[in-house]
Model the fold of this input.
Amino acid sequence: MTKRHIALLGAGRMGSALALAFLARGHAVTIWNRTPEKARALAPKGVRVAQAPRDAVMGADVVVANLSDYTATEEVLGAPGVSEALRDKALVQLATGSPRQARQLDRWARENGIRYLDGAIMATPSFIGQPHCTLLYSGESPLFEAERALLSALGGNTTHVGADIGHANALDAAILIVLWGTLFGTWHAAALCEAEGFPLDALGSSLGAVMPVLAESVRDSVARIAERRFAGDEQTMATVATCHASVRLLHEISREHGLHLGLPDALENVFERLRGRSGDDVAAVFQAVRRA
Ligand SMILES: NC(=O)c1ccc[n+]([C@@H]2O[C@H](COP(=O)([O-])OP(=O)(O)OC[C@H]3O[C@@H](n4cnc5c(N)ncnc54)[C@H](OP(=O)(O)O)[C@@H]3O)[C@@H](O)[C@H]2O)c1
Done:
């Protein structure tokens, strides 16, 4: 593989892992960090440390930014001489943010003659560089294809999700809300088991055992939403009425134990909005969620 010169802006937990993954593939890495000690800690591994963002960007083919958010990124990219040093180069922005923030940065990049890919890292630092590590990118396809081999250093599942610069962040947010929903459910489940004196290790193994059912429900729901198949039919696995009854029960048990009602209340709230649709497929809940 051709050796490339990478400038990395940010030597936080994630930025440091990104630097080492590029280095492991034989690329030259120059890093800048606001707190210099964090960047200097990488020097013994072969990373060059820059004193200012502009110095890092000057000699690079590709610039990767991984600061805490877009506000910090815009601040650093706005530092003296940085936009000029970036001109005609590829900028890969990997902080977590919203689609709107990616579009705003894209406008700035275009105004300054900078080629920009936005990315979302779907992993923690220890996964970086591994074959099953997922990173999502959006932006112009020719730019992604030109940098695909380089970006694969960060994870084997390096995926372009579309030309719309906001779409990596859109999919990131969509996946994150599934993760948060699952984790919120897990915390509520643990509180419920504890209140009932049920062992938590048995909860863990039982949750593992029902994951295939959960995976199938997720797949079926997304397919039905895409096809707008909300009426109950022969393939319906559970109706609104059946699922609403389960939610009411969950609410009752949680109330009896004095648990936090955030999750049962939220579920009850959306099911209440489906009055008169008890025979529909449970995927119809989507229609209650999509408009406040
Ligand atoms: N960690 C993860 O598991 C993970 C997973 C997916 C995505 N991400 C995303 O990756 C990004 C970095 O996360 P992280 O875990 O590496 O965070 P972190 O360890 O807290 O690092 C944050 C980095 O941003 C820099 N920074 C913050 N504000 C700045 C400013 N105003 N000017 C200049 N530099 C500034 C910090 O510099 P100092 O060292 O000087 O404070 C540091 O380099 C975030 O957007 C995060 O959501 C992280």
In short: Residues 10-15, 33-35, 38, 66-69, 72, 75-76, 95-96, 121, 124-125 surround NAP (CB under 6 Å). The chain has twelve helices and eight strands.
